[in-house]
Amino acid sequence: MSSAPINIASAIQSASIKRHPSPHHDLNPSTAASSKEPIEPVSPTSSVSSNANSIPESALKPTPRRANLPPLPDMRFEQSYLASLQGAESYWTIAWITGRDQVVLPLVQGMLWTLVLSGWRYWNRGAQFQGATLGSKVRRWWWNVNHWKIPEQTQEKLSDKVGEFYTAQLGGHD
To answer: How many CA atoms lie within 13 Å of 128's alpha carbon, on the beta-carbon side?
Structure first.
């Protein structure tokens, strides 16, 4: 007999899991396009008169349907969560696994993604107009076409900014 925490977690999580999905039933709901019926062409010897306003036979032939796709993989969180709980033997282990999967890993993922985006933004700020890539050339061309002033890359030091602030605030007095 397995432990009670694993049975409880398994019962809660497995309530919404379909173990053997049918690819014909579970992929998507049926639509009007699901029940196409081929059109029988009218033979040229029939009593229907052929004139300029009639629809050509090539327009009446239905397009062939593509083969059915394989079933979609189950990418829901509960599958990996249940797999993580397989080795859990106590409530503390379940709490640790849940905290790790629900709090710690998303937090680390978000922090890393933010650092990557911030680094990209910082690097791209200097390379926007100074680079020799196609994107920089197009950007400079676009700014010149619109007669916009291209921002100059200044190498102003923090000490210069502090000096300007000091002069503006105190009027240059000691």
So the answer is: 12
